[in-house]
Design goal:
Blueprint (H helix, E strand, L loop, with lengths): L1 E6 L9 H18 L3 E4 L13 H11 L4 E8 L5 H14 L4 E6 L6 H7 L3 H6 L1 H13 L22 E6 L2 H10 L2 E4 L8 H11 L11 E9 L3 H19 L10 H10 L3 H10 L1 E3 L1 H15 L3 E5 L5 H14 L6
Helix pairs in contact: 1-2, 1-13, 2-3, 3-6, 7-8, 9-10, 12-13
């Protein structure tokens, strides 16, 4: 089974945004060493504790610091942008880093209503036009507009020898059906969904219509996971992520992911133990064997050969160790 990385570029307490972005680059390098298939970085706008509003900038930096791991956005929030500009950016990256670039496509705003208004006009109208935006983007990527189209003679230069590979990201039947209708590979965000993921992925596969002859449905399932040498250690590390989520729900947490000791204190003061127990049922937390068993279980449920993992910890070292332990337990070669 392939393993991949989704990085939200979290900022920890006592870190700067520069520190967090540097750790993102180190994570991509480590993922390459550990045998991960791809590294994607997310796009967020003015969200406290998240450092990356521009994946395309980070991908240029990360691509130059790595050699073979596939890199991409998870996701480009397409309603904010003109498809032509997105195609230019990712064609440029594909020219610089051949056969390594993915474009994950999403429809979320990625930030507050105020940030959305500052970034783009008529965002909701653009969300409704998502199918049309995707069509236009695909035509620019593949340079295959019909002759009568107004953009038939417009190239999203430079045109790489191997185009970037588009994926549609989503958490609902609507996104699954859209991906299927457009002949796109699909990434299901299990880590941020309470929906029936198994049914959603089945709907995608059942309705898949190839855009290019020979294309087949491809599925990545994205999960949240934290691995350590022992289950107890993994649960301790996971406290930081859980408490930070609760702080952000209350409009707190602007300082970033709290340390384990800060998280323990907050958990006790706010009496959040029951919530943490529930969180542990949704997130994969454990020692290497426990994490492997759960990942293999998900592989069977979703009939996928690739799982993408998002891991948020206070310590960058704990995050790297988690990815390393999972890769080794799953039999990936590390270099």
């Amino acid at each position: 089974m392939k393993l991949s990385i989704l990085d939200q570029a979290p900022i920890s307490v006592n870190q700067t945004s520069q520190d967090a972005l540097f750790e993102s680059m180190k994570l991509a390098q480590a993922g390459e060493r550990f045998g991960y298939t791809r590294y994607w970085i997310a796009e967020h706008h003015d969200l406290a504790g998240l450092a990356c509003p521009a994946p395309e900038v980070m991908l240029g930096y990360i691509g130059a610091q790595t050699k073979k791991i596939r890199i991409g956005a998870g996701a480009v929030l397409l309603p904010h942008y003109k498809p032509y500009k997105v195609a230019e950016l990712y064609n440029m990256l594909s020219t610089l880093f051949p056969n390594r670039i993915d474009i994950g496509i999403g429809r979320a705003p990625g930030g507050s209503a105020e940030a959305t208004n500052a970034l783009s006009d008529n965002f909701l109208q653009q969300v409704w036009k998502m199918p049309e935006l995707i069509d236009t983007l695909l035509h620019f990527i593949h340079n295959d507009f019909p002759e009568e189209h107004e953009f038939a003679n417009v190239n999203a230069a430079p045109l790489p020898l191997t185009p970037p590979v588009p994926w549609l990201l989503g958490t609902s039947k609507k996104s699954a059906i859209l991906a299927a209708e457009k002949g796109l590979a699909y990434t299901f965000g299990l880590f941020m969904s309470d929906n029936d993921g198994e049914e959603i992925v089945k709907k995608y596969i059942h309705n898949f219509t190839p855009r290019i002859e020979g294309d087949k449905p491809q599925v990545i399932v994205t999960v949240s996971a934290i691995c350590a040498e022992t289950k107890e250690k993994a649960e301790e590390i996971a406290l930081s992520s859980y408490v930070w989520g609760k702080q952000r729900e209350k409009g707190e947490g602007k300082q970033g992911v709290p340390s384990i000791s800060e998280a323990m204190e907050y958990l006790e003061n706010e009496k959040l133990h029951d919530g943490f127990r529930k969180m542990k049922q949704k997130v994969i937390i454990g020692n290497p064997k426990e994490v492997k068993d759960k990942l293999l279980g998900l592989q069977q449920i979703y009939q996928t050969d690739e799982i993408m993992i998002v891991t948020i910890t206070h310590s960058p070292e704990d995050r790297l160790k988690s990815y390393e332990l999972i890769a080794k337990e799953m039999g990936h070669t590390t270099s």
